[in-house]
């Protein structure tokens, strides 16, 4: 059994609904339990600004799946939500990223763990810290150190 974290993001077609529905589908993945869910957060887009604000969240899971199996399950959920892979930094119905997987560090053409941008993105670090304020990101350091060096003013907690 491994502990993993999934980052969720959406800025199209009722983003709050998209995030909540994706969390329900994550709940249904075999050999996988959700053990924690962050609040939802609103943030300005990172990348091109001519797109709507994003809703982001992070879920913590316990899973018996291997990283690639989990990646496939994430891509299936993205497909179920009608995600079409458009421009690289463009708007998206739903984005499900494996942020961390146990203490694993790996990189190949399909998957990089931890997520390569995790340490730069306040919209990931803020919800992650809400769930696990003392977590350590493999190869990058304690989340508290990472959070101390980035601008968090862009990320607003909802509810
Ligand atoms: N910006 C924000 N605020 N949230 C996201 O989830 C997000 N996802 C992306 C890019 C386009 C990088 N910008 C984002 O993929």
Compose a concise summary of this entry.
The protein has four helices and ten strands; from the N terminus they run E-H-E-E-E-H-E-E-E-H-E-E-H-E. The relative contact order is 0.22. It has helices spanning 15-27, 67-80, 122-131, 143-148, and strands spanning 2-10, 32-37, 41-43, 54-63, 95-101, 106-107, 112-113, 136-137, 141-142, 155-157.
Bound molecules: 7,8-dihydro-7,7-dimethyl-6-hydroxypterin
**Strand tally:** 10
- Net shape: globular
pLDDT < 50 runs, ≥5 residues: none
Q: How does the helix and strand content classify structurally?
A: alpha+beta
Q: Beta-sheet strand percentage?
A: 25-35%
Distance between the termini: 32 Å
Helix fraction bin? 25-40%
The string of secondary-structure elements, in order, is EHEEEHEEEHEEHE
Calculate Rg over CA atoms: 15 Å
The biggest beta sheet reads: 6 strands, antiparallel
Output mean pLDDT.
Answer: 95
| Number of helical stretches of at least 4 residues | 4
Task: Present the secondary structure layout.
Layout lengths: L1 E9 L4 H13 L4 E6 L3 E3 L10 E10 L3 H14 L14 E7 L4 E2 L4 E2 L8 H10 L4 E2 L3 E2 H6 L6 E3 L2
Antiparallel strand pairs: 1-4, 1-5, 2-4, 3-4, 3-10, 6-7, 8-9
Bound molecules: 7,8-dihydro-7,7-dimethyl-6-hydroxypterin.
7,8-dihydro-7,7-dimethyl-6-hydroxypterin binds next to strand 4.
Structure characterization notes:
The chain has 159 residues and is an alpha+beta fold. Helix content is 27%, strand content 29%. It is built from 4 helices and 10 strands, in the order βαβββαβββαββαβ. The chain has helices spanning 15-27, 67-80, 122-131, 143-148, and strands at 2-10, 32-37, 41-43, 54-63, 95-101, 106-107, 112-113, 136-137, 141-142, 155-157. Strands 1, 2, 3, 4, 5 and 10 form a 6-stranded antiparallel sheet that branches. The chain has a two-stranded antiparallel ribbon with strand order 6-7. The chain has a two-stranded antiparallel sheet with strand order 8-9. Strand 8 (136-137) and strand 9 (141-142) form a beta hairpin. The longest helix has 14 residues, at 67-80. The protein is globular, with a radius of gyration of 15 Å. The N and C termini lie far apart (32 Å). The mean pLDDT is 95. 7,8-dihydro-7,7-dimethyl-6-hydroxypterin binds next to strand 4.
């Amino acid at each position: 059994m491994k502990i993993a974290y999934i980052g969720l993001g959406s800025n199209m077609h009722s983003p709050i609904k998209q995030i909540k529905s994706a969390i329900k589908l994550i709940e249904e993945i075999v050999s996988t339990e959700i053990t924690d869910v962050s609040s939802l957060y609103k943030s300005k887009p990172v990348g091109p600004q001519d797109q709507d604000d994003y809703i982001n969240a992070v879920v913590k899971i316990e899973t018996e799946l291997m990283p690639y199996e989990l990646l496939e399950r994430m891509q299936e959920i993205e497909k179920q939500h009608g995600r079409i892979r458009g421009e690289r930094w463009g708007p998206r119905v739903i984005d499900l990223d494996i942020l961390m997987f146990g203490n694993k560090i790996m990189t190949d053409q399909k998957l990089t763990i931890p997520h390569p941008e995790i340490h730069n993105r306040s919209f990931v670090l803020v919800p992650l810290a809400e769930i696990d304020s003392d977590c350590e990101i493999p190869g990058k350091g304690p989340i508290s150190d990472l959070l101390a060096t980035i601008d968090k003013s862009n990320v607003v907690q909802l509810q």
